[in-house]
Design brief:
3 domains; globular; alpha/beta; Maf protein; homodimer; 25% strand; 17 strands; Alpha-Beta Plaits; Molybdenum Cofactor Biosythetic Enzyme, Chain A
Chain lengths: 416, 416
Amino acid sequence: MLAEIITIGDEILIGQIVDTNSAWMAKQLNLCGIKVKQITSVSDDAEHIVEALNAARKRANVILITGGLGPTKDDITKITLSRYFNMPLKRDEETLKTVEGIFARLNRPMIELNRKQADVPEGCTVIQNKNGTAPCMWFEDQGAIFVSMPGVPFEMMYLMEEEILPRLKERFQLPFIYHKTILTANIGESFLATLIEDLENSLPESIKLAYLPNLGQVRLRLSASGSDEQQLKTEVDHYATLLMERISQYVVADEDITLEKALLNLMESRQLTLSTAESCTGGYIAHLITQHPGSSKVYEGGAVTYSYALKEAVLGVKPETLQNFGAVSEETVKEMALGALARFKTDFAVAVSGIAGPDGGTPEKPVGTVWIAVASASGVTAKVFLFGNRRVQNISRSAAAALNMVLAQVKLAEAK
Amino acid sequence: MLAEIITIGDEILIGQIVDTNSAWMAKQLNLCGIKVKQITSVSDDAEHIVEALNAARKRANVILITGGLGPTKDDITKITLSRYFNMPLKRDEETLKTVEGIFARLNRPMIELNRKQADVPEGCTVIQNKNGTAPCMWFEDQGAIFVSMPGVPFEMMYLMEEEILPRLKERFQLPFIYHKTILTANIGESFLATLIEDLENSLPESIKLAYLPNLGQVRLRLSASGSDEQQLKTEVDHYATLLMERISQYVVADEDITLEKALLNLMESRQLTLSTAESCTGGYIAHLITQHPGSSKVYEGGAVTYSYALKEAVLGVKPETLQNFGAVSEETVKEMALGALARFKTDFAVAVSGIAGPDGGTPEKPVGTVWIAVASASGVTAKVFLFGNRRVQNISRSAAAALNMVLAQVKLAEAK
């Protein structure tokens, strides 16, 4: 059972937005046992949309389409599908009610452009969209299923979860796809590959191993598909266990989670609390942590201290430390971490101070210089890093390094 | 001049990573006058890669390929290209030196897998990758150009900026593509469309108007391409000015920037400073702001106060306020904003307290309830929002609403 995803919109082709929908959809489809063969992004151009539809149906059974369903003139997905399937547009009363209901709830007046959202190709199955005015449309044509959804992420997500996936599961006898991911840190992918070479070579044909490196971490992913869920899991898990035994000192998690989630899980299981004191990462570490449900069990909060004044007032960094050593120094970052530990009363505190760039570098402290400190009851340790000259990447890499350092210190405390 | 982007990697097709490379590449190509016709993501499968290459060369002159160049077995892009162009792999001495140099710099031992990175299809142009071990390869075949780059974002970005784009610009007489974006806030796209309907209808064929809605904002984008840069700009800017005059009260910026960047620009021009006090957004507002170079001119810092204790200790929220009204209340969020204003000594302070979910909701305060307050010398105002039940989206929507509120208050102060 193969699916393809087609995302429609000029904004994708000119790089104005990042297509996050496709990854989310692909993940959900995989969990249901549907493999995604290709993801294609095309512009709001009728001829090209038709070309993409024709190509996709040759490769896949289900074609999921997002985007191009807005009420404005640049959006042409609906009229293109109407012509493609030879189904003229007709106003759908139920859809009109849904659209009217949305405007009533928002207490907004309605205009003809909004009413036109209720025009749908006659003969398609309309799936009501509770979160927006663009209806979801399900077409069947010569054995292939085409579903057109709005591109607004939360509207698409709701429709996929509540409507599309349940219908696909009911309709097809789906195979089981199983992925097992091992998250490792502090080892490069080629070293990892060398360490596990014999195990990799011994994998049966049906199990695929992938290396996914990212910011000081490498994910190892074992994948297999089949009809017997239990057998599949047993077999894949068997090899996963062998791999994890071999590289145990680098394993951070035995599931596909982020580094910060692995840290949260570990700290929660030890009933440890954490606070943050961020300068150059500007709240990014706090954000990474707090995007996870339940993070409040571990994370108490923190400070984003961009200015000297806030480093002193909120974290208690001594003015003379800042004056003598500068904000980006071992001395300052240690005081930041110890200040957070004492004032926010947590078991661990992590502090980051660096030059994210593009300005602010000096010959001694070039852009990309980042000091990170971790404090706990057993003291404070600091390390300096030299990243590159891209601000957004320096922020990401600093955050990953900081999380890695906390993880190492928590593990160390545990070992004692 | 048309380009296509092909991203290769199972991790994309199973939704393990979001393809952010394509949007970045598309943006850079557009700035050089190269339109992107299609973006295609395929798995690490030789046959499918070849199919994608064949399809792309029919539509475009330049095909940019990322991914699948790692040293491990799952990566097959290089060997597939070697076969596709009928160019056997051969060890390249210069590439080997680059790879050795990288290992020397990192002070890491090298293994045969790493040396194999220096094997390249004989006859292609190798472009040295200073940031990683996977070389960039440039192929020319029957009038089409194919460039294979590593998928690691900063390696790809460096290669695109320093090598690929300059070569394409030198090689081709590129047309000029001009986009003009107007950022609006606090108005829906259909109302915007009605307000500007006559202007939209009067646009010449050569100028395209797109509506890009996102989190309480709508971007209007005018696009045109041609050979006379000056004439193009004059014409597009003329219509942009007409549009902005018509909808002036909703215009936040006359360029393609984010809401927080528009706010930073406005505040910097007024020499105003800002601090944040975040609970449910957990540092996300601080992160949005601080990812922009120069944000320190406006942003002093802030607090992420997840726990009651930190709300009291860092922001001075009264224990009885928390006890009587709860953390998610008008009273608490106002005290948070006023506390940040006084303690962080800024001209404006914004505070957010809400229930991001998935847990923590009650019948009176369901998940998605978010209080936001903005404080300044002229007082404090607060508003309550009811977003949905998805944590990550509640965080984004809360941040957008908070930035919108600050923007409105700064504009109000300005008007006085």
